[in-house]
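Much of what follows relies on a compact textual record of a protein's fold. A record is reproduced here so that you can trace the correspondence yourselves:

. . .
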Amino acid sequence: MKHHLHENGWTVILDDFDFAKATQEDINQIACLLATNTCVVAREQQHLTVEDEMRVSHMFGDVEDLTPVAHLEPYRSILVAGSGNKMERVTGELDEHGQPGLFGHVSDLDWHCNQPGVPNRKPLVWLLGVKGTLGSRTSWTNNIMAYDDLPAVTKHAIQDLKMICGWKKDNYSEFDFGRAKAGITEDFNEHYTPNLVHTNNAGKTGLFFPFLQFRNFVGLTPEQSRTIIEPLRDHVLQDKYIYHHDWKDGDVVIAEQWLGIHKRWKFEGMGNRVLHRTTFDFANCDLSTL
């Protein structure tokens, strides 16, 4: 399997790779690249079937299963047929019931990661551009590099910080769904407090820093926490730590979401743009070659 690095020096671009023909050895190599570089991109994958996507997702690890909520009204418009309730439509396109998929709003889907307040969350996100993607942009951060570049005194000051993560209405998305529709305005998990400084499956240390998805650091008020959050946010969002992906149909982007976050920028064509999304972990990968 051949690959090269994007001009930013860290994003991995797979060369002439076909996920439909991927072996477990290929997936192991990609997993190692994800764990060390946080983001892997492949072009021209528009021929992939739902079955192909699910096969590859399971080759990585355990795939998030939405069966417990599949019977609820919004999910029949979000879940992709034939995926066993494990793949979502990210789109503003209306289905036969007149309902959009997940995150179908035109405005920014601001910096976030998958379910930071959930202890058993899936940290790898697969996105396939199915149609209508041209002109849209999603950006990813590399929080391994951002952490490495921090002064030693800052690393020492933040090394023991823990976060109270969760969700607040309109904090990173205007998408009206689930808890928001039920009238809930925020939901933070007081019982699960992940570390700001995190070491992932590959032994890489960086920042687990979904700054729009946590309320405060344990032992500090939200106001006190902001004096740490704001300069750290400005540091992470320097362009050298960001990969901007300008979509074409058939693109696949896989991202590690312990040590990176991502943002979809405003796009007027959300009514025609369709992405497939699965989330999973490294459970079936061999990372021993790192």
In short: The mean pLDDT is 95. Residues 236 and 256 are 16 Å apart (CA to CA).
